[in-house]
């Protein structure tokens, strides 16, 4: 009788256990579904955060670019205006440069400046535009070339640099009045790899092609 009683209790307990396991399985299924929904939502959230950060970077880059282009617009506008002025003054500037190369070689700095002033006065009378702040040296030679000339022995004063421009740019053969021999040293160093020959004791230069 006791065995039958215990078996009945065991059967009832087993039935409750089975029922509880079924409920647990159902809840686990619901939990798995909710967990999957949560994981999907978290992935969507992270994707949105990544998109938001990417958009923020793009906005910052776009803002920096717009601000930079704003500054460039001012620079381009100023450059365009400067180029327009250069175009207007180009004919007069070239006229002054060619006059300098053709006629100012034999003279000292003072007389060269006087020639430029006289030419500018004639150009004003003829209404030929030119740049008031024209720098003939800067127009005819760059700083790198001047630096190379200095290394070759040419002095760094304005007159010597102008003489170097006339020697290298003018189509006529230059007459060098060189009492200190600086021009001779410079030409020897400059043209030593180009077949320069010095004839006799009179230091007459000629090129050999």
UniProtKB/TrEMBL annotation:
Keyword presence, Coiled coil: yes
One Pfam family here: MT
Highest taxon, organism lineage: Eukaryota
Domain Dynein heavy chain ATP-binding dynein motor region stretches: 148-198
Single Gene Ontology MF annotation: dynein intermediate chain binding
Cross-referenced InterPro entries: AAA_9, DHC, Dynein_HC_stalk
GO cellular component entries: dynein complex
Record keywords, A-Z: Coiled coil
Residue runs in coiled coils: 3-58
GO BP annotations, alphabetical order: microtubule-based movement
Residue ranges of every copy of the Dynein heavy chain coiled coil stalk domain listed in the record: 8-119
Protein's UniProt name: DYH5 protein
UniProt source species: Centropus bengalensis
Organism lineage string: Eukaryota, Metazoa, Chordata, Craniata, Vertebrata
